[in-house]
Design brief:
Layout (H helix, E strand, L loop, with lengths): L4 E4 L2 H12 L12 H9 L1 H13 L4 E6 L7 H12 L3 E6 L22 E2 L2 E2 L6 E2 L6 H24 L3
Parallel strand pairs: 1-2, 2-3, 3-6
Antiparallel strand pairs: 4-5
Length: about 160
């Protein structure tokens, strides 16, 4: 049975890339929103966004942060990382900038979103891995993620259990 995870990503920039990862089928992710549905959630303001995130994260064992060029600067990504960690869920990052978007373009690598957090004085970026999939092209990167994502999630869950 596939692990239930929460996918965290910058919707505007990386929705297409995130969809590719979600459709791999290696994990059971939170419900996918269309552009219109996400806009409806956003119209409800910060409280509605927070409620949606909290509801979607419920029952999930790990947050999978799909890291693109601007992910680290997004306030809701920061909220999702902090919530997942504080709720004792596994947390793992995967760079997706080399997957092609709907216009067949890759992006630049962004900053590590875990660098903004500390756990008892230890940078979260030294605890939570940010995987940078290898491959000569988008297909190769996709295959690398598909072949490893389940193991990365299991490792993240085990790592999280070591910290109180």
């Amino acid at each position: 049975m596939a692990r239930k995870v929460f996918y965290s990503f910058h919707f505007k920039n990386d929705h297409w890339r995130a969809s590719q990862v979600r459709q791999m089928g290696a994990l059971e992710g939170n419900s996918e929103l269309s552009d219109n549905d996400w806009e409806a959630v956003k119209r409800g303001g910060d409280a509605a966004i927070k409620r949606w995130i909290d509801d979607q994260m419920s029952g999930r064992s790990c947050a999978v942060v799909l890291v693109g060029s601007e992910t680290a600067s997004r306030p809701w990504i920061k909220y999702e990382i902090e919530k997942a960690w504080n709720d004792r869920r596994g947390v793992v990052g995967i760079r997706v900038h080399r997957l092609l978007n709907n216009q067949r373009q890759s992006a630049t690598a962004g900053a590590n979103p875990f660098a903004a957090f500390n756990v008892n004085g230890t940078p979260l970026s030294s605890i939570v891995p940010l995987h940078d999939p290898v491959g000569v092209d988008s297909q190769g990167v996709y295959g690398f993620i598909r072949n490893n994502i389940a193991a990365w999630v299991e490792s993240a869950i085990t790592t999280r259990s070591r910290y109180s």
